[in-house]
Recover the amino acids of this structure.
């Protein structure tokens, strides 16, 4: 479990979250996956534990700690329910972080404090129907008007998109300026001109809310902008660098849950008069799974430790995200194989883990984008 990478406080946090996850999250994981619904009861449970304040400004109710604490929580929740884990990490690392890092005190009092308490649900609105990895090609327009902006456009694949009421939205004031024209705006759901359409039929993480959000000439006061005009791209990229570590932790958690199920099944399942765990083919599967799982966790903790200590971490965050996500797909695939036919039906948890894992090499920057970023840093170092 890589305990050597955790201090005593982080170990206590992990134990508390594991107890919560097994008691309050795991029993409902299959049901919310099947029905594709957002569990407000689970949300309130995380709020009561104070999990939404980790790594956010203590002056406004944050609980201190850093991204490693967020990673610990994310992994433990993802171990039983990846959908709940992504809902959690979006609140903290994608919606809360930019307000906590780039917002002024007035903005933090208005939007960050309710995010920390769980009173409001946050969403990070960057991806568009025609721009994903190429974020600078965004076409959502923030037209300058007296006193602020008029916002028009749409965002898609937004986690917490139809239930969120605090939206961190990225738009351009002039598409010709590309990333230099970006602004980061915080919107309240009730503002006139905002509508959302829930996305259903996802392959995995079906219990998390995902939506397309439409902005129709939304009047946004200037004091809703984070940082200066033109800072929006920097806000978005720094937030993604930070949250990438949490996505790596989610992938580790999914893999851990699948690995545990596979080991349990291998010990219990009989074939040719003995447990299948005694067959060398299964043992090699388990060994490969364990190696990738431990390496993924160590990469994730390393990136988190570098970030929390103020050292360069972006290359390591990309390494952790790419390796952990791809390892999660590998490990869940092997888990299904160990289960055989039973792993192909909904009653087996590994079937859900397998579907949940598949999105991790895609969102928060594809594996291809991570490799480009890693190479960019490697070439600068040599």
């Amino acid at each position: 479990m890589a305990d050597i990478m955790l201090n005593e406080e982080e170990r206590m946090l992990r134990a508390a979250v594991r107890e919560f996850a097994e008691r309050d999250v795991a029993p409902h994981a299959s049901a919310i996956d099947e029905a594709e619904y957002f569990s407000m009861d689970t949300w309130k449970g995380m709020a009561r534990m104070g999990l939404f304040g980790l790594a956010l400004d203590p002056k406004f109710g944050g609980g201190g700690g850093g991204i490693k604490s967020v990673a610990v929580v994310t992994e433990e929740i993802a171990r039983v329910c990846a959908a709940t884990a992504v809902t959690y990490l979006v609140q903290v690392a994608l919606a809360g972080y930019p307000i906590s890092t780039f917002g002024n005190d007035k903005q933090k009092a208005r939007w960050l404090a309710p995010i920390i308490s769980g009173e409001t649900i946050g969403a990070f609105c960057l991806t568009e129907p025609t721009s994903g990895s190429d974020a600078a090609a965004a076409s959502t327009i923030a037209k300058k008007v007296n006193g602020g902006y008029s916002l028009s456009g749409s965002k898609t694949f937004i986690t917490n998109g139809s239930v969120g009421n605090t939206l961190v939205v990225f738009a351009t004031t002039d598409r010709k300026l590309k990333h230099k024209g970006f602004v980061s705006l915080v919107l309240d759901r009730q503002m006139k001109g905002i509508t959302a359409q829930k996305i259903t039929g996802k392959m995995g993480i079906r219990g998390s809310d995902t939506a397309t959000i439409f902005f129709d000439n939304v009047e946004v006061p200037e004091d809703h902008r984070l940082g200066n005009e033109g800072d929006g791209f920097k806000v978005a990229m720094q937030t993604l660098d930070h949250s990438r570590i949490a996505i790596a932790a989610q992938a580790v958690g999914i893999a851990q849950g699948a690995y545990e199920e596979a080991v349990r099944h291998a010990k219990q399942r009989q074939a040719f008069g003995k447990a299948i765990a005694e067959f060398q083919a299964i043992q090699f599967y388990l060994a490969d799974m364990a190696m990738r799982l431990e390496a993924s966790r160590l990469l994730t903790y390393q990136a988190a430790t570098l970030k929390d200590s103020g050292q360069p971490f972006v290359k390591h965050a990309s390494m952790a995200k790419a390796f952990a996500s791809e390892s999660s797909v590998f490990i869940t695939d092997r888990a299904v194989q160990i289960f055989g036919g039973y792993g192909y039906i909904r009653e087996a948890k590994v079937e859900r883990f397998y579907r949940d894992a598949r999105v991790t090499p895609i969102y928060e920057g594809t594996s291809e984008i991570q490799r480009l970023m890693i190479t960019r840093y490697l070439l600068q170092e040599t």
